[in-house]
């Protein structure tokens, strides 16, 4: 499906034109479904705590996972106790809802929830019924704020704040709904959300998000790290089983690495033979793929963790909106005791490829506003997770 959309969904072509009538019907059904929820003809469930939904209107990855991780960090710094609810896509568990911890089996609960559990160190619950999963977060794990990962179209869970992520470079493709284009909902849906975040580049009312990752971590021994620059001396195998593998490959090229590309479908269940290459060269993969590959990789296999850097104004506006919702629901937060994360570089500064070659080391592992600047604002490479 993703390969089909990559080929036909990001341009106007004969296939898209033939499928256009079906897309119009799909868009009408989607609008009707949302209208039924908005007018109470289909039931949505509220929680007694604020609910933030992070999602997108297109099929495939746009960078939601690192954004969710940063939001949880930001909310914790502000004194809240956030928890994450996710569908658990790709998981084959028969018991739902269920908690996800750092060592959970991604084949049971999905790769992205395990990644979030490791990164965020907060309560994560997955299940097809997001309302039941969210209630478990609140009633069992003491969360006073819920972040719903990839939940924009799940209207059964009533939300207080909606954040949509847009691929800053591929944008909305040919702007058609499925199957002629890549959209789950019509483009007009973006006008209804509270915030729009552009991954890698932003336009108009969007807030810029930059994803940064300059360090590689050894898959079998996470205490061993190395800069990406240290891999310039040889060609590397680049492995990516994410929504847009070429964004990861472009990120590595931006660091001036020579690649042999190995794209896989999103959420691919890796097997040892997938990583057996004739050339005895280092392997670099995404952190999401590494979740499923520990124990089946060659010795020189590394993953590249990325972190989201957000527009400071977006963070401030979001916290103000959250505070208003929390006050209305009677949620009290701890005083801010944690320092805000220092900003390493301006958002407009691209990922540098000019750092000196590194050596292997051992260590520890609101209200949207109109932009005054016309055109597109770009940040570091927006790796798609």
From TrEMBL:
Listed transmembrane segments: 12-32
Catalytic activity: a lipid A disaccharide + ATP = a lipid IVA + ADP + H(+)
Known role: Transfers the gamma-phosphate of ATP to the 4'-position of a tetraacyldisaccharide 1-phosphate intermediate (termed DS-1-P) to form tetraacyldisaccharide 1,4'-bis-phosphate (lipid IVA).
Assigned EC number: 2.7.1.130
Pfam entry (one): LpxK
Organism whose genome encodes this protein: Candidatus Competibacter denitrificans Run_A_D11
PANTHER family from the UniProt entry: TETRAACYLDISACCHARIDE 4'-KINASE, TETRAACYLDISACCHARIDE 4'-KINASE, MITOCHONDRIAL-RELATED
UniProt KW keywords: ATP-binding, Kinase, Lipid A biosynthesis, Lipid biosynthesis, Lipid metabolism, Membrane, Nucleotide-binding, Transferase, Transmembrane, Transmembrane helix
Pathway: Glycolipid biosynthesis; lipid IV(A) biosynthesis; lipid IV(A) from (3R)-3-hydroxytetradecanoyl-[acyl-carrier-protein] and UDP-N-acetyl-alpha-D-glucosamine: step 6/6
InterPro entries the record matches: LpxK, P-loop_NTPase
GO cellular component, one term: plasma membrane
Name listed for the protein in its UniProt record: Tetraacyldisaccharide 4'-kinase
Annotated positions binding ATP: 58-65
Family: Belongs to the LpxK family.
Gene Ontology terms describing biological process: lipid A biosynthetic process; lipopolysaccharide core region biosynthetic process
Alphabetized GO MF terms: ATP binding; lipid-A 4'-kinase activity
EC top class, as a word: transferase
Superkingdom of source: Bacteria
Region (Disordered): 334-385
């Amino acid at each position: 499906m993703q390969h089909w959309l990559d080929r036909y969904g990001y341009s106007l072509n004969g296939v898209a034109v033939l499928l256009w009538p079906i897309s119009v019907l799909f868009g009408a059904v989607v609008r009707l479904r949302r209208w039924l929820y908005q007018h109470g003809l289909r039931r949505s469930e509220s929680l007694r705590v604020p609910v933030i939904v992070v999602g997108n209107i297109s099929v495939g990855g746009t960078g939601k996972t690192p954004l969710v991780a940063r939001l949880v960090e930001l909310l914790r710094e502000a004194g809240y106790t956030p928890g994450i609810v996710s569908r658990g896509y790709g998981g084959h568990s028969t018991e739902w809802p269920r908690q996800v911890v750092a060592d959970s089996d991604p084949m049971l609960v999905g790769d992205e929830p395990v990644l979030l559990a490791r990164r965020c160190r907060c309560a994560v619950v997955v299940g097809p019924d997001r309302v039941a999963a969210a209630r478990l977060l609140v009633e069992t794990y003491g969360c006073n704020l819920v972040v719903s990962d990839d939940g924009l179209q799940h209207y059964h869970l009533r939300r207080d704040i909606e954040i949509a992520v847009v691929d800053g470079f591929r944008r909305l493709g040919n702007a058609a709904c499925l199957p002629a284009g890549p959209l789950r909902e019509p483009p007009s849906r973006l006008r209804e959300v509270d915030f729009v975040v552009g991954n890698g580049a932003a336009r108009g009312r969007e807030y810029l998000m930059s994803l940064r990752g300059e360090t590689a971590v050894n898959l079998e021994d996470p205490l061993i790290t190395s800069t990406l620059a240290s891999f310039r001396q040889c060609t590397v195998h680049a492995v990516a089983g994410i929504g847009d593998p070429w964004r990861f490959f472009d990120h590595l090229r931006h660091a001036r690495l020579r690649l042999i590309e190995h794209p896989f479908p999103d959420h691919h269940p890796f097997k040892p033979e997938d990583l057996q290459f004739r050339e005895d060269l280092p392997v670099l993969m995404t952190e999401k793929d590494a979740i499923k590959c520990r124990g089946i990789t060659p010795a020189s296999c590394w993953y590249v963790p990325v972190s989201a850097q957000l527009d400071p104004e977006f963070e401030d506006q979001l916290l103000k909106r959250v505070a208003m919702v929390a006050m209305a629901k009677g949620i009290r937060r701890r005083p801010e005791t944690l320092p805000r994360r220092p900003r390493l570089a301006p958002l407009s500064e691209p990922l540098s490829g000019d750092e000196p070659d590194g050596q292997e080391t051992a260590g520890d592992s609101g209200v949207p506003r109109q932009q005054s600047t016309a055109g597109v604002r770009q940040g570091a490479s927006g790796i798609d997770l």
